[in-house]
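Narrative of activities, Objective 1.

The group set out to show that a structural description can be obtained from nothing but a protein's sequence at a throughput compatible with the screening campaign. Below is one input-output pair from the validation batch, recorded exactly as produced.
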Amino acid sequence: MKFNKLIPELTVSDIKKSLEFYTKILGFKTEYQREEDKFAFLSFQGAQIMIEQNKDSDWHTGKLEKPFGRGINFQIEAKKIQPILDSLKKHKYPLKKAPMENWYRKDKELIGNKEFLVMDPDGYLLRFSEDLGTKPLNI
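Output recorded for this entry:
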């Protein structure tokens, strides 16, 4: 396994609950765990995150209050978002924002994504995104 150059590590309040959400509902793979540290390294189609249940740490920049991760969202590219949506629905897990098609300007073209938002059990905002290709920018 090759490590990405940037890997977010998320503090979670309940490692078991978070692992169930990420692996059983979203489809992440547990690459490895340190159960004694309540830590797991997860991957999803090339994306990587670490989760750890640790409320007292030098790594924290302030008091942890839900929702965690305020002011940040993690875009996770998926080959197809529909299987994730189906699993969330099956588990009766709410979406933060329903699937939508968005086109973002990059220089003289538009980059398309079909995406939705979901919050994990601690309130981290996840944006799953499916590539729709590009099209020229009509100016």
